[in-house]
UniProtKB/TrEMBL annotation:
One of its GO terms (cellular component) is cytoplasm. Catalyzes a salvage reaction resulting in the formation of AMP, that is energically less costly than de novo synthesis. Residues 51-152 form the Phosphoribosyltransferase domain. One of its GO terms (biological process) is AMP salvage. It is found in: Cytoplasm. CDD domains: PRTases_typeI. Pfam families: Pribosyltran. Keywords: Cytoplasm, Glycosyltransferase, Purine salvage, Transferase. One of its GO terms (molecular function) is AMP binding. Belongs to the purine/pyrimidine phosphoribosyltransferase family. This is Adenine phosphoribosyltransferase. Its EC number is 2.4.2.7. The lineage of its organism: Bacteria, Pseudomonadati, Pseudomonadota, Alphaproteobacteria, Sphingomonadales. Homodimer.
């Protein structure tokens, strides 16, 4: 399927979660077998080109795409979790949201020193979560130089923010606005 055909599978929900927001709902893409397969294949090609030795995905939709990419490439998957979800000692990072802070955690024993890890997620908006995940993985010893997303919302500047910390970003499609 072409990127345009895949983009057409993404449902836009107006005024969610608040007035003026055009929510890009990927559940319609995930439900479409051929579309999901094509999307995962594109993400896997991006990760393969980056020399990925492992894939990391942020909770929750990053788990869907990241695990599928890791399976396609025959490499491991590292879940980047919300706090308190892992049953072992973790390292974490707090980061700023538009209206407050949040935290991400990983099990550092899942990262080999110098391992090339590619971030995979469904959407890049402001880049706060992706930047925090990249920094956290780097603290654990990973080399994080590439992130691959299904959707970019370029007006929100997330890809540029990731670029500012040395993470090249690729997205299968983009949508104007937010």
């Amino acid at each position: 399927m072409t990127p345009e055909e895949l983009k057409a599978l993404v449902r836009t929900v107006p005024d969610f979660p608040s007035p003026g927001i055009q929510f890009r709902d990927i559940t319609t893409l995930i439900r479409h077998g051929e579309g999901l397969t094509a999307t995962v294949s594109w993400l896997a090609d991006s990760a393969r080109d980056a020399g990925a030795q492992a894939i990391a995905g942020m909770e929750a939709r990053g788990f869907i795409f990241g695990a599928a990419v890791a399976i396609e490439l025959g490499i491991g998957f590292v879940p980047v979790r919300k706090p308190g979800k892992l049953p072992v000692a973790t390292i974490g990072i707090d980061y700023q949201l538009e209206y407050g802070t949040d935290r991400l955690e990983i099990d550092p024993s899942l990262i080999d020193q110098g391992e090339r890890v590619v971030l995979v997620d469904d959407l890049i908006a402001t880049g706060g979560t992706a930047c925090a995940a990249a920094e956290l993985l780097r603290r654990a010893g990973a080399i994080v130089e590439r992130a691959a997303f299904v959707i970019d919302l370029p007006e929100l500047g997330g890809a540029k923010k990731l670029g500012g910390i040395g993470v090249a970003t690729q997205a299968l499609m983009d949508f104007a606005g937010h």
